[in-house]
Structures are given as structure tokens and as C-alpha cells.
Amino acid sequence: MQQDLERFLGLKTLPARLTTQQAAWVLGFSVYEIPMLVSRGLLKPLGRPARNGQKFFLTATLEELRRDERWFGRASDAVVEHWRQKNTGRVKAQAAAALPSTA
Q1: Domain locations in the chain?
Q2: Which of 29, 68, 83, 87 would you call most buried, defined as having the most Cβ atoms within 10 angstroms of its Cβ?
Q3: pLDDT of residue 39
């Protein structure tokens, strides 16, 4: 995986359209964070891909986003908020499971 990343980022010219994995490499996010950014409207895939289909992203758009400090702040906040909500739900579920039943 690391060799793939190094080889990809070492290309002189990136392809015009990138997969989710490649977009994550270009932006510095994890591959599982890209769908979070898409669902929050911070990243837009090309065309109208099926919900469970492969998504592609325009390299030129990703290059613009790489230079946008405000966008990176919003994107990073969205990832943090996603995990905060997910962890809050997990803690509540564990607390509810730990309560003694009143039967």
C-alpha cells in the first residue's frame, strides 16, 4: 500500500479522474473519510454514481481544494464531528446495555 501511494504521488502528471483511494491520497485523508466528506457535501463525485458504486473525482477540483485552507478546516471538522457522533452513540448503547433490567 505504501509503495502504491509513493508511486502514485510520484507521477509527473496525475490522471484527470481519480478513484476514492487516489482522492484520499491527494487530499491527505483516509479512504474511509472520503464518503464522510461526500455525504456532508464537502466533496462532489463526478456524474451521478450509484449510491454503492465506485466514485470518481476530478483532479483539477481536488488540486483547488488542496490549496483552500478554509475547506480543509471544514473538512477536518466534519470528520471530527462524524466520529464524535458515532462514539457518543456507542457510549450511550453501552450504558443502556449495562443497566439492570427491571423485569
Answers
A1: 2-86
A2: 29
A3: 93
SS (H, E, C) 11-46: CCCCCCEEEHHHHHHHHCCCHHHHHHHHHCCCCCCC
For the stretch 52-91, pLDDT in tens is: 899 999 999 999 999 999 999 999 999 999 999 888 877 6
Distance between CA atoms of 53 and 75, rounded to whole angstroms?
A: 22
DSSP state, residue 99: S
**pTM, entire model:** 0.77
